[in-house]
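#struct-help
A.M.: can someone run this one for me? Single chain, 214 residues.
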Amino acid sequence: LLQDNVLNIINQIMDECIPHERANRDFCVKFPEEIRHDNLAGQLWFGAECLAAGSIIMNREIESMAMRPLAKDLTRSLEEVRNIIRDQALRDLNLYTEKMKDSLKHFDILFAEFELSYVSAMVPVKSPKEYYVQQEVIVLFCETVERALRLGYLTQDMIDDYEPALMFTIPRLAIVCGLVVYSEGPLNLDHKPEDMSELFRPFHTLLRKIRQVI
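D.P.: on it. Structure tokens below:
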């Protein structure tokens, strides 16, 4: 809680002192919902201190070793920022010196870099390409349902009533449609397995056999 409070105060100072020079944090939209909470900053600070002291985070030795230099830079920068803010508070609360601004910019950049590295090591963070492929799968399922309704394979009442059988029917129809009707979409087997959605990637060989049969 103390760490969160300190970081909240520093963030408020940065919003006022360097509002147009904050580090880009667009990557945060990729984080899972359970990661994006009010205590994340404090956890990142604690993680940085542990890494800087030589600890291994959650048995991830390779990732921890890779992040350790950044963690050390971040903890040093944070200490410098705290000292400068403390010193400035004893002088003039309304004055932001160039030294203070430079320290805040440097800290903000390091914190953003560490946040992305740390969270990416702890949980899978999708790349823009992976998000695009995921969107293609969503479109495939939507077009499959529309086509099935049009051809009478399904009824709107089945969908409105959450017919349990749809849990099996729609994915199977989507696979057939993806292989035959929308063959240039996410189930394009001419692509490498690593270019496919992680949902279908493990079944690349099986999908080829299914396509041969149908």
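A.M.: thanks! The chain has two domains: 1-122, 128-213.
D.P.: also worth noting: The mean pLDDT is 88.
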